[in-house]
Design a protein that fits this description.
By secondary structure, this protein is of the alpha/beta class. The chain is 31% helix and 18% strand. The protein is built from 11 helices and 14 strands. The protein has a 7-stranded mixed β-sheet with strand order 7-6-5-8-9-14-13. β3 and β4 form a beta hairpin. α9 packs antiparallel against α10. The longest helix is centred in the C-terminal third of the chain and has 16 residues. The two termini are 33 Å apart.
């Protein structure tokens, strides 16, 4: 049994492009979208998500349907903005996605300030210096904001070719896909991204927050194992946080403080309970799935503060 942390559905995840137990059959989330969501949740940025009170300002590039639905509050969050170079390909968004070229630095700098900026497997498509893109997006973070992203990786070191004349088959051989211009190497990705973020970037490590059992249930076990050995993969979440204005240890936007203890189960249970309340007493399959998820989390977590289940942030920093 799997539980999707994004949509709360309990199901057996499906194979996707040769990767077993990869895709949630309910919301179509993949491992990398679930790790990004878990990062935002554990970094204290998703309080009140799933309710009408969730109003974080968000820039989401190349939006995935699963994250689009949750972060936009199914269209109710007017502060959620999503973009792509080819917005017409996103049929699920009903025309809400705006065209944006991340290679256009002026356009990047014209974006409104945001609490959250995110993108999954986007930088490999951009025929420009990816460092400029990261810098531009970081400049659009509101005080206390966070920028999260994932990258495709391969063994060895970074490889790039911005030439428009490179044959598609050569691009696929070198970069794993015909429309990619680069791929990040597992040998030097941590160093490269760290330098690109001015030495202020970080890597979200699932093993600091979950046990192997929970990682398996949430369909992020591959990422968990990579994180546990200090590696990097296609679902590794890099993030940059902009300091809050004023004092050290200041709260995040909307007065939400960063969590001092990992409380993933508590957050998920609150979210599922909110969704169950919205469905009322109906006997829908969605309600049934949410109830199964709720029960499964209850079984997984005998005690919320169990040291066998969670590691607090102080331990993670050691």
């Amino acid at each position: 049994m799997n539980i999707c942390p994004i949509c709360s559905a309990a199901s057996e995840f499906k194979e996707f492009r040769g990767r077993p137990a990869e895709q949630c059959p309910n919301c179509s989330s993949l491992e990398r979208t679930r790790t990004v969501y878990l990062c935002l949740m554990m970094k204290g940025r998703l309080q009140q998500i799933g309710t009408a009170s969730f109003d974080r300002s968000i820039h989401h590039f190349a939006p995935e349907r699963s994250l689009y639905n949750e972060l936009s509050a199914h269209g109710k969050n007017g502060q959620y903005r999503c973009y792509d170079f080819s917005p017409e390909i996103y049929k699920f968004a009903n025309g809400r996605i705006k065209r944006h070229d991340l290679c256009d630095r002026d356009a990047n700098r014209d974006l409104a300030m945001a609490d959250i900026i995110l993108h999954n497997h986007v930088l490999e498509h951009l025929p420009t210096d990816f460092r400029h893109v990261l810098d531009d997006l970081n400049s659009r973070l509101a005080p206390g904001g966070i920028h999260v992203f994932t990258l495709p990786t391969k063994g060895g070191k970074y490889d790039e070719d911005l030439s428009p004349n490179l044959a598609p088959e050569e691009r696929k051989r070198r970069f794993a896909q015909e429309d990619h211009v680069r791929i990040f190497g597992r040998e030097d990705a941590l160093e490269m991204i760290g330098e690109a973020l001015g030495g202020n970037g970080s890597v979200f490590r699932l093993n600091h927050y979950l046990t192997p059992a929970m990682a398996s249930v949430f369909g992020v076990r591959n990422s968990y194992d990579i994180d546990a050995r200090g590696g990097v993969g296609g679902s590794t979440v890099f993030y940059y946080e902009k300091a809050a204005v004023g004092v050290e240890g200041a709260t995040f936007p909307h007065g939400q403080s960063a969590m001092t203890k990992a409380g993933l189960a508590e957050l998920l249970i609150e979210l599922i309970d909110a969704r169950l309340a919205e469905t009322g007493g109906t006997g829908t399959s969605k309600r049934s799935s949410s109830e199964v998820a709720r029960q499964t989390i209850d079984l997984l977590v005998d005690r919320i503060g169990s040291p066998d289940f969670y590691r607090n942030l102080e331990e993670a920093a050691e």
